[in-house]
Design goal:
Blueprint: H1 3-10, H2 16-21, E1 45-50, E2 61-67, E3 73-79
Antiparallel strand pairs: 1-2, 2-3
């Protein structure tokens, strides 16, 4: 097959063979940098919603709050359903 045949078949856009063999134009990713170690409890926390749970007392989601220093976790279930983002009022 010559170049004209190839261009006629795949058009160079979404062809899986072409996209697999194209080189990346991004710089290689560097090494991961660790987060700084907290100096005291509850100065750095992580929050996460666990959703899609079976209903228990009308709740289907849990908010988890974890202290990065002591690894202590609090589980809060104020959510009757999956949390939805609020829309700003105009």
């Amino acid at each position: 097959m010559n170049d004209e045949d190839t261009l006629g078949i795949c058009q160079g856009k979404a062809c899986p063979v072409c996209s697999r063999h194209k080189s990346s134009h991004h710089a290689p990713a560097g090494l991961l940098q660790p987060l700084p170690v907290p100096r005291r409890p509850w100065s750095h926390v992580s929050l996460d919603f666990v959703t899609g749970l079976p209903p228990s007392h009308g709740h289907t989601a849990i908010l988890t709050v974890v202290d990065r220093f002591s690894k202590m976790a609090h589980f809060v279930c104020p959510c009757p359903s999956s949390p939805q983002p609020r829309r700003p009022q105009n």
